[in-house]
Specification:
Blueprint: H1 3-11, E1 37-39, H2 44-53, H3 62-72, E2 76-79, H4 86-99, E3 102-106, H5 116-129, E4 133-136, H6 143-146, H7 150-174, E5 177-181, H8 188-198, E6 203-208, H9 219-226, E7 230-235, E8 237-243, E9 246-252, H10 261-271, E10 277-279, E11 287-289, H11 305-318, H12 332-353
Parallel strand pairs: 1-2, 1-10, 2-3, 3-4, 4-5, 5-6, 6-7, 7-10
Antiparallel strand pairs: 8-9, 9-11
């Protein structure tokens, strides 16, 4: 795949954004709005460009991130709000209300009692900013990459469960909802058992519509099972291709991948009317899911062979005809162009085809 083909597959027909001037998405023509929010990871390349160019602003600042997402035509944000003073959170809330955009947080669980004050201050910041839900993960990385033994995985799960048990009373006291993402960590049965065991109206799901394919689960079945628990949604599409040790998994602009997004949204909307959706399409090199390597199975000893067979049939049937794109092979300016194109295409698809 040459550079021209790569850019086309990544970004469609987006216009280039030069990095020899202060980068700003707000300089682009204002698109039609969608209710779909944007997760901070969607603009990772943009953030690195801003830092590299010394533009004097950072997308780690929630207000800057809000303005950039508004310029793209998004309807909200999901980002780490951190710990901020009343003045800055009031400013963020007023601006979001003026733009009619939603705010959701992203937060790290308190893994021991010493972290509870930090966690509570982050909840306080999020609430003052107008958020009523924050996304969290049970553990930071992908199960099949992070752990080499079932014992280590089980210890990490136990640590995450303890963190949730520490967090729940604070969530209940503030009536603030925590949305636990299916983050290529627990499989469906494990996560549902955990949510039922906690049995809290303040701990639910951030439903990622594609992540569990990497754990050999059917994305449609996963969405149906999590729908009653949904507090928020990570909306994405996926492209796949076979490789020697399994399959490659790449984020694709909405409508350009293999997921049945209209059907998924129908399930989620029926289960939770008024549910918010946030785009999480990350412009990055494809991830390797090495299901034919022994290392993959170190923590997945109980997965039925039928799940592996079903997934490999899906990958074979839906495998991308063209090699998947590798943004890392592009110039910095082309990477920004590709990322922006993926976001703009996805927002347009959400607005025109998904009723968002």
């Amino acid at each position: 795949m040459n550079r021209r083909q790569m850019l086309r597959s990544l970004a469609g027909a987006c216009s280039a954004l030069a990095l020899n001037s202060p980068p700003s998405l707000s300089a682009a023509p204002g698109p039609s709005r969608t209710r779909l929010g944007i997760v901070t990871y969607c603009l990772g390349i943009r953030q690195r460009a801003l830092l590299r160019e010394g533009a004097g602003k950072s997308l780690a600042d929630p207000l800057t991130f809000l303005e950039e997402c508004q310029a793209l035509g998004a309807g909200g944000i999901q980002t780490d709000l951190g710990i901020r003073d009343e003045t800055s959170t009031a400013q963020l809330r007023r601006r979001a209300e003026a733009l009619d955009m939603h705010i959701e947080g992203a937060i790290e669980l308190p893994y021991d009692e010493a972290e509870l004050p930090r966690f509570e201050r982050q909840l306080e910041t999020a609430a003052r900013a107008g958020a009523t839900v924050a996304r969290a993960t049970l553990m930071p990385n992908r199960r099949y990459e992070q752990f080499t033994s079932l014992k280590d995985y089980q210890a990490a799960v136990a640590r995450g469960v303890k963190a949730l048990q520490l967090a729940e009373p604070l969530l209940a006291r503030r009536r603030f909802r925590l949305a636990l993402e299916n983050h290529k960590d627990q499989r469906l049965a494990e996560r549902l058992e955990l949510l039922k065991r906690l049995s809290s109206e303040y701990v639910g799901a951030c439903v990622d519509v594609g992540n569990d394919l990497a754990l050999l689960e059917d994305p449609g079945e996963v969405v149906r099972a999590y729908a009653p628990w949904a507090f928020t949604v990570h909306l994405k599409d996926l492209a796949v291709r076979e490789y020697a040790d399994g399959f490659l998994l790449a984020d694709a602009a909405l409508g350009e991948g293999i997921l049945d997004l209209p059907a998924m949204l129908d399930v989620l909307r029926k289960a939770k009317p008024g549910l918010r959706f946030n785009l999480e399409v990350i412009t990055r090199d494809p991830l390797k899911v090495p299901v034919l390597a022994d290392s993959y199975w170190a923590t997945l000893t109980d997965v039925p062979a039928t799940d592996l067979a079903r997934t490999l049939r899906l990958v074979k049937a839906k495998s991308s005809v063209q090699p998947l794109a590798y943004p890392s092979q592009l110039s910095p300016a082309e990477q920004v162009e590709a990322e922006t194109g993926n976001i703009r295409h996805s927002l347009a698809y959400a607005r025109e085809r998904l009723g968002l």
